[in-house]
Task: structure prediction
Amino acid sequence: MKKPFIFLLIFLLAFSVPLSGCSVSEAVVKAEKQNEVVIGNTRFAIELFKILNKDDSDKNIFISPISISTALTMTLNGASGSTKEAMEKALFYTGISLDEINSGSKYIYQNLKSKDNQTELIMDNSIWIKKGYPIKQSFKDVNKEMFDAYITDLDFSKPGAADEINNRIKKSTKGMIDQMIRPPIPEHVVMYLINAIYFKGDWTNSFDPKNTYEANFYGKSKTVTVDMMRRTGDTEYYGNERLKAVRLPYGQKEAYA
Result:
């Protein structure tokens, strides 16, 4: 009887199957479908929020959709057949080749990192493979080239294996997340694929602390008194019968919103 095995995807935000691999090809220098990949990421984020809001409607939700879609796209490079088709559909990548998906993802990653020198963004991808487990070199190559992933084989049975992974996560999140993997690592785990994001930045137009005031916040199940921020001036706003939203950019106005 074959032993079960699994690889884990971990998505971190600070404020399993044998992998078939694919070719890096010419995607390194071209991003011909970058707009389609951006649109796919946006649609994925919206649908993800819909699902989470439905499942956890009584809770506050704070996630990083780009972190989740990045890790899943990295994994997509090792999928095939119906699994690959299902992942492409879930990520709204249908009709885009894998090379185009990878190059578009690299474009997003590079664009975010270089967008604004007034903010700090760290997006750290890493793949930790159980020592001796056969992973195709093409899978490693494409994730290193397209997602700047740190990839290493690690003896999961040694006492300090979990600490080694946690230390990288701690460093990339500036100490805000110091333990994600709890030792000992289970015997059936063959890979950890991790995306960790750290972001630090001030709003383009900051709120004056002197204008802070207490008021009631009406949640779905209870009302609590919290500190509210207030400011005047022009703000980009959108509203309809279902939602109201404002755009509060960080750093340089066109960088992060």
Remarks:
- The radius of gyration is 21 Å.
- The beta strands are 6-14, 120-130, 150-154, 189-200, 213-218, 223-228, 236-239, 244-247.
